[in-house]
Amino acid sequence: MQQSAHPALLQPLSGAPQLTDLRGLIDTVVRDAETGLRQLTNDLAGRSDSERKQALLAYLHRTRQRLLRLHVLALWGDKTRAFGAVSGALDAAARHADAARDAADQLAHTHQHITGTQAPPHDVQTAMEVHETGGYRLLPLAIEEVRPAPTPPAAARAAAMRLMDRLLRTHLLQEEVPAGVRV
User: Fold this and answer.
1) Residues 51-84: pLDDT tens digits?
2) For residue 50, how far is the Cα from the chain centroid?
3) Are 11 and 5 in contact (CB under 8 A)?
4) The pTM is what?
5) Phi/psi-derived region of residue 161, left when phi > 0, alpha when psi is between -120 and 50, beta in every other case
6) Cβ(9)–Cβ(87) below 8 Å
7) E-strand spans in 22-148?
8) Residue 56 to residue 115: CA distance in whole angstroms
9) Band (4; pLDDT cuts 50, 70, 90)
10) CA atoms of 24 and 5, how far apart (whole Å)
11) Distance between CA 132 and CA 121 in Å, rounded?
């Protein structure tokens, strides 16, 4: 029997007994049957004919039952490959369901966000304000908040540069410089 390619089936469960392959199981059953038959032939030497027949019948019944169980196990082994394929399909379906659920949640959140931020279709108060004053009073305030600070005049910039140059020179004179470097 080939082991299934599904990775979840290859990893043993914690606390579960060790898994074995079918070939090893067949070898063990055949070896036990041969050993049992040898022991039986050695043990039957001093018994009566009816006892030998009963012991042989019991041995044959036990061995037949074990071989039947092994046969059923071998037939069931083919179904594990199908189980691995079905398990993989179910895993993929579960991942798709999770992705669909996440997408639906995000869509609902986005819908709530959009509905909360959209302006009413008929803003009567603003329309009345524009009609009465000829302008929109709140628009300049909104633009003013995001407008960058105005640049200072050229004279103020030159004075700031002279101040920065003087401060930088003062700090450089206080520091120790390598030989050959002048400030």
Assistant:
1) 889 999 999 999 999 999 989 888 887 777 777 7
2) 67
3) no
4) 0.38
5) alpha
6) yes
7) none
8) 86
9) very low
10) 19
11) 20
